[in-house]
Amino acid sequence: MAYVLEMANPGSMFDLVTGKDDAFCTFFMSFRAWIEAWPHCRPVLILDGSFLKAYYKGTLLTACCQDANDHIVPIAFGICESETKSSWKWFLSKVCQSIQYRHDLYVVSDRHKGLIKAVSEILPHASHGFCVAHLRRNMTHKFRGSAATLGWKFKAAYMAATVKEYDDYLSMLDSENSRIRTWLDKIGANTWSKVISGPKRYNIMTSNCAESMNKVNVCAREYSVSKLVDFLRERMQQWFTERKDKAEKTSTILTRKCEKRLVALQAEATRMKVKPSCAYEFEVVDSRCTSFVRCLACYMVWYYASNC
Fold first, then answer.
1. Same domain flag for 80 and 215
2. Which domain of life is it from (predicted)?
């Protein structure tokens, strides 16, 4: 199967490993279109695994990223027996062989212990952050608080654009349960806070991209390996064809989503008055409130992964 795919798709990478009596062990695939798309996407690698439900079971490992229009871009798929440290090491090693390494690489995933160890060994120079959606669910379960209250306060903390805002919202979490901050500190603020982790993470705070990919494949997870591989190839081919058609019809310099966001911000800005206080401090007045802004202190250059 791997040989046939490789002959039909030059520049792609496929690897099929079999054991005793040619029994299936692992399969890896990364098509040329995916490999060539990677340098044009944000250098954030999103990883996730999902169970396969066919007769022989197994696990589908997924690596993907996002393009400038926030579309999911697949990087590679791997099929193995289970989600362990060794399986993640195998998968990440194959991913590294497939794609160009980028010095500012950032990895986003859940807190699977095997995955954390595999990333530290295979990608020692990459920063590794955790999916905040997983952390939020773990927090509400562990501390038995109101999911809505803990949820919005935690979101405000991890989305804070300044360290002061970050500290203020953590203090609000302290009022709910004083043990939450200790728990979060143990995990490491650099793995979930936008302002602490810095611009390398862009605006990708969850592993929802990989999970969305798994939801697309939910029915196919009941297929045999060969049928699953064919389904993934066909679905991704459809995605790339549709996006190519849309890209060719795009007349703006920026992507459609970024252009729409900037137009909305421009419309909102026309209702504001900016009064300079000095060279780097300004008073901004709109219909809702008055704010004092220190130039670039809000980190908006990278907060939305676009220009301020």
1. yes
2. Eukaryota
Residues 88 and 221 occupy one common structural domain = yes
Residue 306: what residue type? Answer: S
- Please give the pLDDT value at position 9: 82
Main-chain dihedrals φ then ψ at residue 73, nearest 5 degrees: -120, 115
DSSP 19: -
User: What CA–CA distance (Å, rounded) separates 83 from 91?
Assistant: 10
The predicted pLDDT at position 307 comes to 40
Whether 108 and 224 share a structural domain: yes
Residue 183 lies in domain: 143-195
Q: How far is CA 90 from CA 17, 97, 151, 221, in A?
A: 11, 11, 35, 21
Residues 6 or more apart whose CB falls under 8 angstroms from that of 130 comprise 108, 109, 110, 111, 187, 191, 192
Q: Along the chain (308 residues), what's the average pLDDT of each consecutive run of 10 residues?
A: 74 90 90 95 94 86 92 94 95 96 94 96 96 94 85 93 91 92 95 91 87 73 86 91 89 85 86 84 79 56 50
What CA–CA distances, in Å, run from 197 to 122, 161, 189, 192?
A: 21, 11, 7, 7
Structure tokens at 16: 């099929």
- pTM of whole model > 0.70? yes
Burial of 125 (0-12, 13-18, 19+ CB in 10 A): exposed
